[in-house]
Every structure is written in structure tokens, then in C-alpha cells.
What we know:
Helices cover about 30% and strands about 30% of the residues. By secondary structure, it is an alpha+beta fold.
Amino acid sequence: DKQSGIDHYEVLEVRSGHQPVDQDSLWERAESPYELKDQGLRSDIYVRAVDRSRNFIVAKVSARHPQAVSGSWPFGMMLLILIFFIILLLLWSKRRIFQKA
């Protein structure tokens, strides 16, 4: 609407894979240029253009480097521990075979 015009922009950075919370208090008023908090580009960026009548529209910019395996480092650690124990089990069973011979 030409009469209302853009009043300001707001930004919300949300870790990739998480849903944005619809709370106005989490949105940060942005000025150009806006420096991203997540310099690793792992967050989705939501930009909200608000007009003078307080109507708004939201645009999303997806994370450039989303976290792998749903962002869960404990899952990766558990996988490494499991692989380690499988290797130990194989080495132990191989050693027992050679001791019997």
C-alpha cells in the first residue's frame, strides 16, 4: 500500500532445522547493513518488513551451511563410540582364534 509505506525491517536468526518462535520480542529491529550473529551461516534468516500500519510480510533465507545429522553432535559421538567397540570386538575375536591354533 503506497500510503502506509515500509516503516522498518526486523530480523530473526533461527538454527537450521528448528521452527521459528512466533514471539515479537525475539525479532530484532535491523538497520542496513545488518551484521549476522551466526557468522557460520548455519541459521535460517527471517526478515520481516513492517509498514506504518503494522502489517508485515516475512521472507526466509535458508542456511547456507546447515548442521549435518539434524544438528545432533551426541549422535555423531555415539556412532564413533559404536564403531570403536565393533573394531575392538573384531580384534578381540581375531586374537582368540589365533591363540587356539
